[in-house]
Amino acid sequence: MSRFSIQRHYATMQPLIQLGQEIRGRGHLDGKLVELVLMRCSQINGCAFCLDMHSKDARAAGETEQRLYLLSAWRETALYSESEQAALALAEELTELPSHESVSDALYERVREHFEEAAVVDLVLLIGMINTWNRLNIAARTVGGNYKPVAHH
After folding, report:
1. With b meaning 16 or more CB within 10 Å and e meaning fewer, what string describes 110-133?
2. What is the pTM of this model?
3. Neighbour tally for 1: CB within 10 Å
């Protein structure tokens, strides 16, 4: 049972909603990559609502079931491109923040090999945004399983 309704406080959530729309709207990041990053962070944080939402949005955007099934073990498969692997590594480090030295120069350079600086900024914002959503939904005890995806073009 939820503690508070995210929907009831929708106006308060507008800055996060707008940030997500802006990141997607700039087009620096592929839509499928966005969903993979959102899913991976939500897996780490254990946010059922966000996992439900982003798995459905990923499928609606054309992502394959197999890639979604293997996402938590992305290092052990050849299903993800080098740029996706770099983005997923960054997502994991920024979500877990194992130390104040997270996001080593080597990881940053790996990411920069695949993404322009503006895309890196959007990727970092995306990771921060989903971590905030995960924490909001976990604190609210938002129940997952009932999300309906929006139509993708």
Report:
1. bbeebbeeebbebbeebbebbbeb
2. 0.91
3. 4
